[in-house]
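ok trying again, last paste got cut off:
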Amino acid sequence: MTDDINSNDQHKRYSVVTTSHIGCGMTDFVVYIDQSTVRDGTLKELKSAMRELVDFVEANEPEALAYNVYFSADGDRIAVIHMHTYQAPLEFHMAVAGPKFPPIGEFIDLESIDVYSHMSEDLNQCLKDKASGLGSGRVLVHERHRGIDRVTDN
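nice, full thing came through this time. structure:
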């Protein structure tokens, strides 16, 4: 069910989507989070490489809703978080940005990839390949049970 509402408190128009358990054929937001340790002495090079990757995603992946890189205060850890409206933009990201991942492996040990959404077996395998290629990471898929999504129309 989708309803457009006007919020007097926030003065923005939202599309509100309510869903029960997501099944086949339905779309669902995809939230992707990977977490890695930063190899000693590589923080400067990693930050430069990630700046280039973010610029690439911004220029080449118009369907990505968000693509953000976070470092811990001590620079020992990195998290990459992105969000897509459905699975295809994540598949596209893996195809077009995937060749840029191996050089980043020099700077990190990828520990985990968590995906919050329904995911195809092919995409799951692609993420497992990324996790093993950049570290010793595991991939966990978290299926949505129930929730709402609010996306601004602006």
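cool. Confidence is low (pLDDT under 50) at residues 1-26. The longest strand covers residues 30-38.
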